[in-house]
Amino acid sequence: xxGHSNYEPKTGFERWLDTRLPIVRLAYDSVIDFPTPKxxxxxxxxxxxxxxxxxxxxxxxxxxxxxYVPHVDYAFNSVERIMRDVNYGWLVRxxxxxxxxxxxxxxxxxxxxxxxxxxxxxxxxxxxxxxxxIYLLMMATAFMGYVLPWGQMSFHxxxxxxxxxxxxxxxxxxxxxxxxxxxxxxxxxxNRFFSLHFLLPFMIAxxxxxxxxxxxxxxxxxxxxxxxxxxxxxxxxxxxxxxxxGFAISVFLLMFAAFVFFIPNALGDAVNxxxxxxxxxxxxxxxxxxxxxxxxxxxxVPDKLAGVLMMFGAIAMLFVLPWLDTSKVRSMRYxxxxxLYFGLFVLACLxxxxxxxxxxxxxxxxxxxxxxxxxxxxxxxVWLSRVATAxxxxxxxxxxxxxxxxxxxxxxxxxxxxxxxxxxAPAGAAASPEKRG
Amino acid sequence: xxxxxxxxxxxxxxxxxxxxxxxxxxxxxxxxxxSFEGPFGKFDQAQVQRGYKVYxxxxxxxxxxDLMSFRNLGQKGGxxxxxxxxxxxxxxxxxxxxxxxxxxxDSETGDVVQRQATSAxxxxxxxxxxxxxxxxNGGALPPDLSVMIKARAQGPQYVYSILTGYGTPPAGLExxxxxxxxxxxxxxxxxFYKGKxxxxxxxxxxxxxxLEADKVSFDDGTKSTVDQQAKDVVAFLAWASEPKQxxxxxFGVAAMIYLLVFAGLLFVSYRRIWRNVAH
Lengths: 437, 279
Description:
The complex is a heterodimer.
Chain A (H helix, E strand, L loop, with lengths): L11 H7 L4 H10 L2 E3 L8 H22 L7 H11 L3 H28 L8 H23 L4 H13 L7 H9 L6 H30 L17 E3 H26 L29 H9 L3 H21 L11 H21 L15 E2 L2 E2 L3 H26 L31
Antiparallel strand pairs in A: 1-2, 3-4
Helix pairs in contact in A: 3-5, 3-9, 3-10, 4-5, 5-6, 5-10, 6-7, 6-9, 6-12, 11-12, 11-13, 11-14, 12-14, 13-14
Chain B lengths: L1 H16 L27 H13 L33 H8 L2 E5 L6 E5 L13 H7 L18 H10 L15 E3 L20 E3 L20 H16 L3 H29 L6
Antiparallel strand pairs in B: 1-2, 3-4
């Protein structure tokens, strides 16, 4: 999509088409000849894995939509009917429901990869922001999709999440009424969620095209964070990365298949197999695992509006990240201090996910009650989430801005082909490359 | 929701104030093992047949199974499946269906009439509607059992534990009328406990202890104990919740082998292609 094209039409038809619609040239330049740094490790395979995830969700989703009935009286049974009476319906439905979790596993790894290797830094800010847009769209899609089976958790989850908008001053109530299509979560809500759940994946696909376009302008980053200097630093995408991504995709699909075929309901809540009943609230309302960190942030704040703002703020941090990190060094491989803070950041995200799945007053250390601090015992999930939330925001607002100015990074290699040498090593040592897949 | 958080926080305070009164939650379900567990697990057809008999003679008096039709009993993997016989023509299934009368509309007059059920009919519900179900059960609604095993955490163990968990309530526990104490039932009995020490685990359930020894006579000569009946009916309910479970697992084993071989080939190709690239 940028730079010189090496495509040479081989047949008469290709030449004819190339002067009218150079689509074969586009494909050739994008996925065959595209020069890609030769030192990408397996963390870089998740882009391809995510493309496969999106494809699986769209294909299975279209088949499900042929059989699903978006009506409060029929939705639950229609999903069960798909699994009982539609040929291989169980396969399609379990691929779709587990596929959402797989999609999020892959996207979180992809995002942490970007955070660690500084993939958001110039000149890839737009690429990063488009990724954040995709992530937001994914969350909206996943949330609305979870409502469709119209189980207890679907219904009460929808009530909790749509009510969050009610916290906004002045316009809050109007917004929730508008979202619901009435004065409660009911049939109109289910219908519009179904419609939007069908639409959003195609918007995701559209933004994915922009994301890949924005990737192909500067080209891939790489684990050293050093720019590509010469042709020696790169290999053509095909066959080098098609085969490597292909291998990673098949390993990922092995894990995917293990869930679909052997533990298809392990990632979901059993309560969602109870049909929705507005009059009975489940003891625990918890979102799917991939939303738990945000749910923990929401509950960490003792004010509804502030909690909602913090929750959205947590995602907003990602959008402005390229301008928060002041370090000129792209890869944390050469930023030992940053590496430590990054490790803590990953830990904070995991802790938030853990807290999000528990009741706020559950003790962190069982059986120990310490002392009351403001509104809760110090040894409680709510206080642990507060600590983790504070760190989450500090990482973006304090650590990254300051660390870039104060730290001393390690020396970076001259180029991708010549990894950094020990000070007294002979010049020829550069020939022994890093052993990295 | 935050208000709920504060209410829960208040509960938390109550816990600190008087830990002796705290409800302990239900007992962890009994550790039972099933033939349908694990990636290679399968249903034991004889057990699922016995389980159906328990459901039919005991549970179905109060519990509907709206998602089940008689034909399901004769489909592949079902309790009365015979190879080469379609589910609708299965003689056992037809004979079972014949025992039931279902409502239909007379096409000549439009009147509601009764006719013998066929393989294509759904399992009839024991009650006409929710109000009728509650009226007959002291206000409690017997839940539909179609997906019961999927709808509870640790489903098979949980249902087995409930069925076999009834016993004499602990001293000091006042069991309300039309209720039964069951240590595996979620709930909180602290308001009804006047005894000393810890509040007993578990909760109250409106279902009368449903199983008794020899209540169901098994056609294959299996001894009809409460434990056996409970295990068998759980196997039947597990099958009904996921009738394609065995097919799914068998498909899964083949899919995993295929993917393993595919991944292996790709890995070898990857090593070959990258052989001459220093990276």
